[in-house]
Automatic annotation (TrEMBL):
Pfam families: UQ_con (PF00179). Residues 201-226 are annotated as: Disordered. Residues 73-218 form the UBC core domain. The gene is UBE2L6. It comes from Meleagris gallopavo (Wild turkey). PANTHER family: UBIQUITIN-CONJUGATING ENZYME E2. SUPFAM superfamilies: UBC-like. This is Ubiquitin conjugating enzyme E2 L6.
Length: 226
């Protein structure tokens, strides 16, 4: 409470940028002198006894302050996933598509006939809401398989919305896809005519699948010369 005859002390006004669920807003707040010094050197998250945690992007004392981009959950919370998949022996040439962390491509190396003579390129696409929504795997290499459509869509209940669990990692998704290729059968079916051929004429199916693999699959990295 100011005394009579003395003006109240002037409290400086600072400009701040806050992150809210629906976007970024600029706000002006009066900051007591001691608090001003603490906020001036901000480089990360902060807490003020006056306003609490506000998700401040940057103290905008200078007009035109640049807000920092929000890192994607894949790069912030699970940065090790890409390296974990690379260390797994079932995939080669794993990389981001156009440096997009939401799109991965690589080669799957089946272990069993009739596909183990080739490599099959895949793309794994993540939702912006990963890991709360499932990724989608697709084969880019043509394959003669009852569980894979001509456009590369695969039968993978693991990544269906009703079965997806946020704790499922990318390695498990690709291991499940490799399991599908290693064990063509009549349980995970998208092409009934091929499932019928496999059930009724298995030798004819295997011959056709081997020939299709020879014509369309990519060379396996472990069979390439120096």
């Amino acid at each position: 409470m100011p005394t009579a005859g003395r003006a109240a002390p002037r409290v400086p006004v600072r400009r701040f940028r806050f992150r809210f669920p629906d976007g970024v807003r600029t706000a002006r707040r009066r900051v007591p002198k001691g608090e001003t010094a603490r906020l001036g050197a901000w480089r990360g998250g902060w807490h003020s006894p006056f306003w609490g945690d506000r998700g401040l992007l940057r103290p905008g004392a200078e007009p035109g302050g640049v807000s920092l981009p929000r890192p994607h959950p894949l790069t912030r919370a699970r940065p090790q996933e890409l390296e974990e998949v690379r260390r797994w022996g079932g995939v080669r040439d794993l990389h981001l598509v156009d440096r997009d962390v939401l799109r991965w491509r690589g080669l799957l190396l089946p272990n069993n006939p009739p596909y183990n003579t080739g490599a099959f390129r895949f793309e794994l696409t993540f939702s912006p809401h990963h890991p709360f929504e499932p990724p989608r795997a697709r084969l880019l290499t043509s394959i003669h398989h009852p569980g894979v459509l001509p456009d590369g869509t695969v039968c993978q209940p693991l990544t269906s919305p009703e079965n997806w669990e946020p704790i499922t990692c990318a390695t498990h998704v690709l291991q499940d896809l490799l399991l599908l290729l290693d064990n063509p059968g009549t349980e995970r079916v998208l092409r009934p005519e091929l499932a019928r051929e496999l059930s009724e004429r298995p030798e004819a199916f295997l011959h056709q699948a081997k020939e299709h693999t020879r014509r369309y699959a990519e060379p396996r990295p472990d069979t390439l010369g120096p």
